[in-house]
Amino acid sequence: MSEILDFSKFPLDSHIQAAIAEMGYVTPTPIQVQAIPVVLAGQDVMGAAQTGTGKTAGYGLPALQRILPKANTSMSPARHPVRVLILAPTRELAVQVNESLVKYASKTPLRVGVVYGGVDIKPQADMLRRGVEVLTATPGRLLDHHEGGSVNLSQVEIVILDEADRMLDMGFLPDISRILNLLPKKRQNLMFSATFSPEVKKLAGNFLRNPVLVEVARENATADTVEQIVYQVHDSEKTDVLIDILKGDGENGGPIKQVIVFVNAKITCRRLASTLSRIGISADAIHGDKSQEERMAALEAFKKGEVEVLVATDVAARGLDIAELPVVINYDVPFGAEDYVHRIGRTGRAGAKGKAVMLATGGDSRLVTAIEELTKQKFKPAERRPLSREERRSRYESQRRDGFGEDRPRRVRKEWRDDDREGRRPVDLPKMPAPVYDPIFDAPYEPTETTAETEHNQPVQTAVRGQAQGKKKGRVAALLGGLLRK
Ligand code: AMP
Which DSSP string do the residues of 385-425 spell out, in sequence order? Predict the structure, then answer.
């Protein structure tokens, strides 16, 4: 295939081209170069791509193009049946996909909408009854709408399973099967997945007809644009090391400004965010127990820079669209090696440089090996201990000279004893000269969380899953080769 260097070379309608130009897209990403012509040709696609590769435009632009001849400005709902259906595992991903599609279709009469659970169903039902040609949905809520009679899926021409691996992980297979049975037999099927477990391959085998494989070179995507660092830490020192990283591993030795910290358990998520907040780092937590509104509000505050650190579990963070995040931190080594790929996919997007830091304790070695096998690399973990009191003080002084942190509140100074970690208590030091404020010294000590509770409340099962993945030879291309040869 000859190299396509700009979007104008694709046979896309001028209204779609204008929308792309308005969004500032000039050069198509590799997945777009591969996927757009194949989808335009009406073929089924198996896409090996994670979020951040530009896959939404890769399937969205040609899908819009294919149904554009039927676009119309009639007020009649019957003239606006669902023609393109996108299934996404989470509300966040559904919202994000829809936002992109709304923009891509903004200069056409096509109606674009989204439905997901956890919010009032009625406004969504009203939207569906008015008619919408491009619908993004989470599976459960779509079935609710179907049962309630607010959506008819008999005109669907193109169906897209986005983040298929995660949908299976989340137990959506029965819902997906039910939905596929509601669609016309003759249709175009697209499926995107970051990883290829036997279950994903089985679904692909049942769902796709002679699919064309489109794949981005993941080795390059991770090795070239994301610097991956692993620190070997003591269990009891994880939180202190994390705080050191947040406060001093940013640009020019300053604090890190926008970062997602991934954890394995809801309880860790809550406690870590509150610990960080207490020492003056603006942090919020997103996890499965938070309502949709709370999660969206946290995400918005983070995007605006009002919150600097978002502590997140995998399920809650799935599909978050935060472009060019400079750093992600794995506070916990993920139970599933594939989650590592998803987590670090939040940084180094669209060619931007990113950094992925992971804190690994002695007990994590099997999980780390599983990640190394899946991502075909060998980490060189460096031991990292928390800074001493003197080191913290001197870092804070030099940051102050460099103009970092000038807006920090000044509080009554307390000191911590460093000699007894468990028993650290504030001790008032009344006669010290020139107060130096460091929020670290000013917070009650909170022991590091152990992962007792996972997002699914099934720690043992999940851990076993992670180990099983470790045995797998991880090369996506090889797996896909197997899939497509079968
Ligand atoms: P996605 O992988 O679809 O979630 O896209 C990741 C991010 O890249 C989104 O913010 C898109 O708007 C953006 N994006 C997608 N394609 C391009 C492109 N060709 N040029 C610049 N940005 C893009």
Answer: -PPPHHHHHHHHHHHHHTTTTTTPPP----EE-SS-STT--
CB of 47 closer than 6 A to ligand 1?
Answer: no
Distance between CA atoms of 190 and 59, rounded to whole angstroms? 8
Q: How far is the CA of 53 from the centre of ligand 1 (A)?
A: 7
Which residues 6+ apart lie within 8 Å of 102 measured at CB?
Answer: 112
**Strands (DSSP E) found in 171-238:** 188-193, 212-215, 226-232
- Between CA 421 and CA 425 the distance in angstroms is 9
Are the beta carbons of 249 and 356 closer than 8 angstroms? no
Give pLDDT tens digits for 10-21. 999 999 999 999
> Are the C-beta atoms of 232 and 360 separated by less than 8 Å?
yes
Residues 6+ apart with CB under 8 A from 281: 243, 246, 247, 255, 308, 309, 439
Helices (DSSP H) in 305-383: which residue ranges?
Answer: 314-317, 337-344, 365-375
Residues 6 or more apart from 85 whose CB is under 8 A from it?
135, 137, 153, 156, 158, 159, 160, 179, 183
Tell how far the Cα of 317 is from the centroid of ligand 1, in angstroms.
18
Q: How confident is the model at residue 225 (pLDDT cuts 50, 70, 90)?
A: confident
Q: Ligand 1 within 6 A of 384 CB?
A: no
What is the number of residues in the chain? 486
For residue range 58-78, list pLDDT tens digits in order: 999 999 999 999 999 999 999
Quickly list H helices, 84-185: 91-104, 121-130, 139-147, 164-169, 173-181
CA of 319 to the centre of ligand 1 (A): 13
- Is 312:272 a contact under the CB 8 Å cutoff? no
Contact 279, 442 (CB under 8 A): yes
**445 vs 27: CA distance, rounded Å:** 50
* Number of C-beta neighbours around residue 406 at 10 A: 7
pTM assigned to the model: 0.57
| Token output for 284 | 């919020």
